[in-house]
User: What shape does this take?
Amino acid sequence: MAPAATEHKTEKRRQERKRTRLRSGKLVTLDGRFLTECQVENIARGGAKIRLVGPCVVPKRFWLFDDQYCGALITEVVWQREPELGVRFVQDPNVTPLDENVLSRLSGKYYSL
Assistant: This one.
């Protein structure tokens, strides 16, 4: 699918994005350590635009935990303009999925990892 042209710029995403009404989430390292909270501004099949809640050094790849669905996807940073990030969802069979214990703690109202 070709990028869609808009009045001000060329659209580069391949799938249509959906606004999420600032759904909350968390960034977690690939080995399961909490980094920071975030807001998911919009999401598409292939990626998302997120806004960091506070200052954080963000690695190139991390888990994006979605508070609404209590699940996590591996993401890779495509672009970064503080405090916003554009990420794409990736699959990596070499990364161990987060276990149920970590997912359960992330989904709680108060959490600690």
User: Anything to note?
Assistant: The longest strand covers residues 18-28. The chain has a mean pLDDT of 84.
